[in-house]
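Objective 1b: paired records.
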Amino acid sequence: MDTMKSLNLPDQFKNAIARGIFDAVTCDLPEQISEQELPTSVGSGLWRWNYINRDIERFLGKSIQYTYQKRGAWKFLLLFDPETAFTFSIMSEPNFKRLQTHLPQNPHYIEALTQKNSQQSPMEGQIRLQGCERQRDIGVLDEIREQLMSDFSGIIENHILILFDASSNIVTSVRALLLTPHLEIALSESWSRYLSIPYKANALPYIDDISSDEDILVSLKDDPNSSDPTSGDTLPEIRKESESDNEDQNQSS
């Protein structure tokens, strides 16, 4: 099978997604904690998703279709671009790694969303871990996919998973993945360069614009303080949280 070489998406779209994640995690949440003079940041690993969803929705505006879908106790943002026929969802890198190596008992929504990515071949060098596969009812996955896509109008083809990684309150990377139905990576495209480019509506982000200046339970652990290398502003440090995003334990058919 031929593998797609590029997602062929506009720079402005990539900038809106990457910068929305950056502003939410690195700016909005720490600023809120500081303004409220909160002594702790309990639950911030989950709470940051409210800012991520809001900022991405604001940046993209009416240029794209979007909906919020509920799976178990988790509610997530799902995007659809009629121009490319792609849908998009967002997840943290640690969550995706857990999902690749340990699928939940019930079907995960990413498994359903990627069912139509069937013409893609996995990148060379990937090793499937024994024991991580689960037998799924394709009919059930199709039903979940139809339910998740029910708010969209237009022909829908591939689903793209957007991943981000963060250390404490600093977003360190963003990339877009085209997955196979077995959650193997067919294409990985880095969007990290857009993290430092302020988003401007109706304008392409040129490099010259770079500024100089799941159960609702989380486990907290201390993380060494770090400063934002991409900004001249000093942001309040918050402790890194290891969250399951409610995705691993709250999926049901």
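Objective 1b, second protein:
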Amino acid sequence: MLRKHLSDRGKIVQLTAFDRAVDNGGFVSRDEVYKIGEYAPDRKLNNWTAPINGYTDVLSDKHGLPEDAATPISTKYGPGQGFRPAIGFRVALELVKLVREG
């Protein structure tokens, strides 16, 4: 349902990156996302995960996804404190397993 949601809304970069993360065992790097999206080097990825994670409320409210289910995709940052660009995105391992089995 999540994959269809992204496709129906034209979020092809997020869908492709999600699939790449699954293929990679749960992680897609920032560099891979930029290649997939053909993004300019100065583009920011603020709220980039919103189309994926925002749909979890629908899945929870209407399709029985437990409210305590893992966030589908999370941003991974480099070391340090304060502002740091994302180094990539991690798909919840439960989803990796479900997609691979389905």
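Residues 2-101 form one domain. The chain has a mean pLDDT of 90.
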